């Protein structure tokens, strides 16, 4: 089989590497100290190219990907929307990752991870080879819903966590009104960024299903303040009030 190139050899890239290897694909990692174009000289025609860098590095990495690889990309970043690749990539495969991997621990599945694109079946077969459930989506519209949902989940839990702390089970059990208010503001932003309105209660119900997949998942990670600041900057650009987000920022940032 042709090798799969993985750009970014961190925790998440390592999980995918295990899946690809179990499915029979050789894996060629690209670390921070390696020049992508030199790797492309060695692996000119890979089976696929997984971009497993963090959100903040995605745009620079995509800009530096060789032309021969650009129709083979698989993206997995959080806070990802079509605007992040449109005009730069043609029809990438995108997975909304719903499992986590922390240093020194094995991966933990929350809910099945949806994937869409030309290499969706490859991703599905590879991850399911290591017992990570994957849902292959039927359309780009389905993918957009899933990407917005993941953003609503992350931003709602992180931003609500700045105010109430705790885990997602406690958030929904004891502070549902706060979670709903934050989620409403987050949806205001995400729907504008996505240029599409989704049913708000369906989005909330899907977010709660993700809560139920790991009720002890902590609300607030280290990136919570930065996520709130980024959401407010987006709201300013879009002319949105997002009053609850601004109240939390005034009190906690």
Q: Keywords, please?
A:
single chain; 253 residues; alpha/beta; Rossmann fold; N-(1-d-carboxylethyl)-l-norvaline Dehydrogenase, domain 2; 2 domains; 7-stranded mixed sheet; two-stranded antiparallel sheet; 10 helices; 9 strands; 11% strand
What structural category arises from helix and sheet content?
alpha/beta
Q: What level of helicity do the residues show?
A: 40-55%
- CATH homologous superfamily annotation of the largest domain: NAD(P)-binding Rossmann-like Domain
| CATH class placement of the largest domain | Alpha Beta
Give me the number of helical elements. Answer: 10
Please report which band the strand proportion falls in: under 5%, 5-15%, 15-25%, 25-35%, 35-45% or over 45%: 5-15%
The count of β-strands is 9
From the alpha carbons, calculate the radius of gyration and give it in angstroms.
18 Å
* Regions with little confidence, pLDDT below 50 for 5+ residues: none
Oligomer: single chain
Second-tier CATH architecture of the largest domain: 3-Layer(aba) Sandwich
Distance between the termini: 51 Å
List the secondary-structure elements in sequence, H or E. Answer: EHEHEHEEEEEHEHHHHHH
Shape: globular
